[in-house]
Design brief:
- With 677 residues, this protein is mainly β.
- Helices cover 1% and strands 30% of the residues.
- The strands form 16 sheets. Strands 1, 4, 5, 6, 7, 8, 10 and 12 form an 8-stranded mixed sheet that branches. Strands 27-28-29-31-33-34-36-38 form an 8-stranded mixed sheet, with no helix packed on it. Strands 21-22-23-25 form a 4-stranded parallel sheet, with no helix packed on it.
- A hairpin with a 2-residue loop joins strand 7 and strand 8.
- The longest helix has 5 residues.
- The protein is elongated.
Amino acid sequence: MKKKLKQRLSMILSIVMLLTMAAVPVAAEELILDEDMEYEYESDYVGNSLLRASTSNATYSNASSVSGTVFEVSAGPSVMTFMVLDETEKTVQVGDGISPAVPAADTQRLYIPDSVSYNGETYEVVGIGDFAFNECRFLTGELEIPSGVMSIGNKAFSGCGELTGNLHIPLGVTSIGEYAFLNCHGFTGDLIIPDGVTKIERGTFSFCYNLDGTLTIPSSVTSIGWGAFSGSGKLTGNLTIPSSVTSIEPIAFQYCDGFTSLTLLSDLSRIENGTFYGCYGFTGNLILPSSVTSIGNTAFFGCSGFTGELVIPPDVTDIGLGAFEFCSGISGALVIPSGAISIGEHAFTGCYSLEEINVAADNEYYSSEDGILYNKNKSTLIQCPAAMQGELKISDSVTTIGECAFFYCTDLTGELIIPFGVTTIEDCAFEGCSGFTGSLVIPSSVTDIGFRAFVNCSGFSGELVVPTSVISIGGGAFQSCEGLDSAKFLGDRPEFLAGICYGGGWGRYYEQPDVFAWCKDGFTLYYPGRNTTWKNFVYEGDSIINICAYNDGFPEGGDGGSESAPAKNENIGKWIQDEHGWWYQYNNNSWPKNGWVQLEYNNKNDWYYFDENGYMKTGWVLWNGRQYYLNPVSDGTQGRMVTGWLFIDGNWCYFNEVSDGVLGAFVQDADNTPGSI
C-alpha cells in the first residue's frame, strides 16, 4: 500500500555577525542564502504550503558588498543609524545593512527623513538598508518612505505589524529586497509596484493580510519570487500577470483568496508548485497560456471558483500531484494531450463538476475508457470524473484502483462490481460514493485495502465478506458505511493499519485503525474461530462493535463450540419461529447462518446447523463429505445433532460420539454398512 509521509518543517537559520555600530568605515560582508530558509510549514501532502515565515535575521544571496561611514543622528523622536553610500554624491541609506537602525523595542511613531546632516554635510536618503527596521514590531503610525528612496533592502520592514495606513512605495524605487514587508499586516488599501522594479523577490509582501485593495504589477517585472504575496488574502480584483513575466516561483500567490479573476498574459513555460494554491476567489474560466509545458504540484489546488471547461495546453508534458484538486467548478470534458507523460495522483480529485476525462489516442502513457482515466495498458484506474452518473463499468484489465480514483462520485449508482484481478484498492479510492447500493463484494484477488477506501459509502447493505486474500486494511477503510450489518473475515487476520492518510487533500491521522468506525449500532465483526491468527484479537478503535467468532468448518465440540459463539454476548439470544422455520437471534440482532453453532436450549447445549438464510436444518445434512442427522421431531430437541444410535427409517444408525473433529458424523448402520467417515 502506497503511503506518503507528511512533513512539518521548521528550519532555523541565523547570521552570526557582530559588528560595532560606530562612526567609522565598515564593510558589509556578503551573506549567502541557504536553500532551506527559515520557515515554518504546515505542509499539505506535497509539503510546499507556507503558513508563516519567521521574521528573525536570515542570510541572503543578493546582499550587496558595500562600505561606508556609519553614524547615528536624531530622526524625529528616535536616534537612527545611517550609512554613507556615496561620499561624492552625498547619499546614505537607513541602517548599516546588518542590524536594525533603531532599537527593536522602540515604541515611537516611525519617521524617516528625506535627508540627514552629519559633520556639517547634508546627505540625501536614497535607500532603506537590509534589516533597517526588521522586527521593530512596536513602531506605530503610517509609513512614509522618502520620495528619493530607490532601493528597499532585505527584511527592511519585516515584522513591523503595527505600521498602518496605505503602503506607498515611491515611484523611483527599482529594487525591493527579499521579505522586505513580510508580516506587515497593518497596511491596508491598494498595492502598487513601481514601474522600474524588475523582480519581486521571495516573500516580499508575504502575509500582508490586511492589504485590501488591488494589486498592480508593472510591465517592468520579469520574475515573481517564492511566496512573494503568499497569505495576503484580502488583495482583491483582477490579478493580471503581465506579458513581461517569464517566471513565477512556487507558492507566489498562495492563499491570495481575495482576487476575483486571473489573467495570465505572460508566456510562462511552467506553473510552479502551489503558485495559486487556495485562491478560491478566482471566478470565470481558467485560461492557461499556450506556452505552458508543465503544471506543478497543487498549482491550482482549491481554486473552486473557476468554472467552465479546462483546456490543457497541447504541449503540456506533466501535471503535478493535486494540480487541480478541488477545482470544483471546472465542468464538461477534459482532454489529456498526446504529449502528457506524467500525471500526479489526485490531479483532478474534487473537480465535482467534471463529467469526462478523455485522452488523446496517440498518447503513449495514458488512455481512457468511457470517460475514465487509466494508465496506458489500463492496469491502473487513475481517476473517474466526479460528475459521472449511472452504473459504473471498470475495465477488466485493472489491477490497481488508484488513490481517490472515485472520490465523492456521488452520482454513480447501482451495485459496485470490482473486477476479479484487482489486487490493490488504494487510499480513499471510493470515498464518499454514497450512491452505490446492494452488497459490497471484495473479489478474492484483493490483497490490500487502503485508508478510508470506502468511507461514507452509506448505500452498501448486508454483510461484507472479506476474502482470505486480504493481508492489510488501512485505518477507517469502511468508516461510516452505515448500511452494512456485519463483516465476515474468511481467512487469516489482516494487518489493520494505523497512521496518516493524505487522500482528499488533507492528512488524517489514525492513531488506531478503527476500520469500521461509525458504522451502524450493532455492527458485528465475524472471524473464523479456529484460525489461530485471530487468537486474542482486540478491535483497535474508539467505535463500539460486536466481535464474534464463527465456526468455519464441521463441529468440534468442547472449545470449538464455545469459540463459535459471539464473544460479547456469550451466546445469549432467543429462538424465533416464522413462516419459514426456526432461527436464532443473538442479543446484538445478528444470527448464525451457513454453518454449525452450539446453542443452549432447555438448559442443554447442542449443535445445530443453519442454512445460508439462517434457518435451522432438520433431517439428513451432508457436510464436508460426511452425513449428519438433525432431529426432525418437534419434541423439545428438534434440530439438535444426533450422536450415538438412532432408529431411522427402519434402520439403526450410529453417529460418532467422540469430539475428535467429526462429532456427529454417520459411522454405520445395524448391518455394519459404513457411513461416509
